[in-house]
Amino acid sequence: MEMLINFPGGARVDAQFGPYTVQTDQPPMGGGAGSAPTPFAVFLASIGTCAGIYVLGFCKQRGLPTEGIQLIQRVHTDPTSGMVGKVELEIQVPPSFPEQYHSALVRSAELCAVKKHFEKPPKFDIYTKSVVVPA
User: Fold this and answer.
1) From CA 84, how far away is CA 127, in angstroms rounded?
2) Which CA distances in Å does 80 have to 44, 74, 77, 84?
3) Is 14 within 8 Å of 5 (Cβ atoms)?
4) How many domains does the chain have?
5) b/e for 5-28, b at 16 or more Cβ within 10 A?
6) Which phi and psi angles does 116 have, rounded to 5°?
């Protein structure tokens, strides 16, 4: 997959891929307008939404209702490094949701591809390349 990252103005940095554009910005105190989430917030949201896709798929495959189900994501930062130290995902279900599927919901959320990439991170190759931009 290839993404085009561009700078539409101010402190905005957008990612374009396929028919989509993911917009990011910095808060006013970071020099932006706060018009979109920060790149890091989008990254963190990808964890919960990815786990949510797996929970949704589990329920749909079994004909289980999803009304009243929500995931709460809590990010715990290591105070010494400022890095994420722990991500907690709480899957909230209504009282009517069958108890027999609770642990299976957890197992389905653990299949999240974003989580798996956290556990086994990719290598990064970052470099510059001079290109001529057509006029």
Assistant:
1) 26
2) 20, 18, 9, 11
3) yes
4) 1
5) eeeeeebbbbeeeeeeebebbbee
6) -65, -35
The residue segments making up the domain with residue 86 are: 37-119
- pLDDT truncated to tens, each residue of the chain (135 aa)? 899 999 999 999 999 999 999 999 999 999 999 999 999 999 999 999 999 999 999 999 999 999 999 999 999 999 999 999 999 999 999 999 999 999 999 999 999 999 999 899 999 999 999 999 887
Give the span between the Cα atoms of 24 and 42, in whole angstroms: 8
**6 inside domain:** no
> Dihedrals φ, ψ of 4, to 5°?
-100, 120
Structure tokens at 91: 């899957």
Count other C-beta atoms under 10 Å from residue 38's C-beta. 17
State the residue for tokens 């970052």: 126
Identify whether 27 is part of a domain: no
Asked, for residue 22, whether it belongs to a domain, the answer is: no
104 in any annotated domain: yes
Under DSSP, the state recorded for 84 is E
At 82, which CATH number?
Answer: 3.30.300.20
